[in-house]
Design brief:
The protein is of the alpha/beta class. Helices cover 39% and strands 15% of the residues. The protein has one domain: Alpha-Beta Barrel (TIM Barrel), CATH 3.20.20. It binds 2,4-dioxo-1,2,3,4-tetrahydropyrimidine-5-carboxylic acid.
């Protein structure tokens, strides 16, 4: 089937112009500051984490503009992106403002997707989105439900980020922002410790809490997509109560872990969950196909850009190479991870 060969990026972010103008006005985090570089050029920097090294990260059109997203997709042969607002979402706003802003950002994202191009010769759009829930302290249930209803009624919003709507049939993207405490280290390692380790571990904790709370028993049709291949959860799940292994196979994981060995291992752990249901625990190489069905390609765009604009992005090249090289995955498994699984999950 032609659509099986489409490449779909399920982990792709943006900061909308509306959010960027709010960041520019703010003096507390998250904020955008303007400053002069050593070469005299003015630049804007986005500061979203406490004590961020280098005074935040350079921010420009790649974080904001739809044309830049589309150019990036074209350069890397990505047909479809499911775009989500990047962290820290609306966590910094009081409840009423967060709710109003969520509604506006969701309308903006629906327009961003619906007025974008189609995949050539198909009726499928190139851009879909995850709406945003204003999950802040003091938010009322009614405000959350209104936002879920708005997202469900938006034809191009196929999921939401960070929340559990049990009725709306939306895919829920669980993505980190806080890491695990101050983890910059004494030497200047840039973002390595908090992002490479802290972020995925935050997701590990969040997903574990969901499993232990019984949410997946109460709402078995909930479809949760975990960022960064579920962080350390596949590695640590057997240290939890043993039935955590079973629940792991109910989750979807992105393939943003940069290594074929890691993807192979993750697909084993997901497949084991399936075996668990049948009473057999031993996973064979052929079972990796079962595990692969719950793994979906992602890029993390626009984070981690290359130094020169002519280069391809490592986050794409390395994550695609990782998929290509997983021992035991068939060509069909790889196509599924690159796009087919997302087409089914998001019903595109
Ligand atoms: O790796 C990532 O996904 C990210 C992200 O989403 N946000 C961020 O600030 N850095 C890295």
């Amino acid at each position: 089937m032609a659509s099986r060969k489409l490449i779909v990026d399920v982990h792709s972010h943006l900061y909308s112009p509306r959010l960027v103008s709010l960041f520019r006005k703010r003096t507390n985090l998250p904020k955008i500051i303007s400053r002069f570089r050593d070469d005299g050029q003015k630049e804007e920097r986005l500061v979203i984490l406490d004590d961020e090294p280098g005074g935040g990260r350079p921010v420009g059109p790649i974080y904001i503009e739809r044309d830049e997203k589309l150019k990036f997709m074209k350069k890397h042969d990505i047909d479809i992106s499911i775009v989500s607002t990047a962290n820290p979402w609306l966590d910094f706003l009081p409840a009423k403002e967060a709710h109003e802003m969520a509604l506006q950002l969701n309308d903006d994202l629906e327009e961003y997707c619906s007025t974008g191009p189609n995949v050539p010769n198909t009726s499928i759009r190139q851009l879909y989105g995850f709406g945003l829930l204003p999950l802040v302290p003091e938010i009322t249930t009614e405000s959350l439900l209104e936002t879920v209803r708005q997202i469900s009624a938006s034809a191009h919003l196929k999921g939401l980020s960070n929340g559990y709507p049990r009725t709306a049939g939306l895919v829920v993207f669980i993505h980190p922002h806080y890491g695990v405490g101050k983890a910059w280290g004494e030497k200047d390692n840039g973002h390595v410790l908090p992002l490479a380790l802290g972020f995925p571990f935050e997701t590990t904790v969040a997903a574990t809490r969901i499993i232990l709370s019984g949410v997946l028993d109460r709402f078995p049709s909930l479809r949760l997509l975990l960022a960064h291949s579920g962080g350390a959860l596949p590695q640590l799940s057997s240290r939890l109560k043993h039935d955590a292994r079973f629940y792991l196979g109910k989750l979807y994981l992105d393939a943003v872990c940069y290594g074929s060995e890691e993807l192979g291992f993750v697909s084993d752990v997901l497949a084991r969950s399936n075996r668990y249901e049948t009473g057999s625990k031993n996973v064979a190489l052929g079972d990796r196909t079962t595990g692969s069905k719950r793994i979906l390609f992602g890029t993390d765009h626009p984070f981690f850009p290359p130094l020169s604009s002519s280069e391809k992005w490592k986050s794409v090249v390395e994550n695609l190479e990782a998929i290509e090289n997983v021992h035991g995955w068939t060509e069909a498994d790889k196509e599924g991870v690159k796009g087919g699984n997302a087409i089914s999950l998001f019903n595109l």
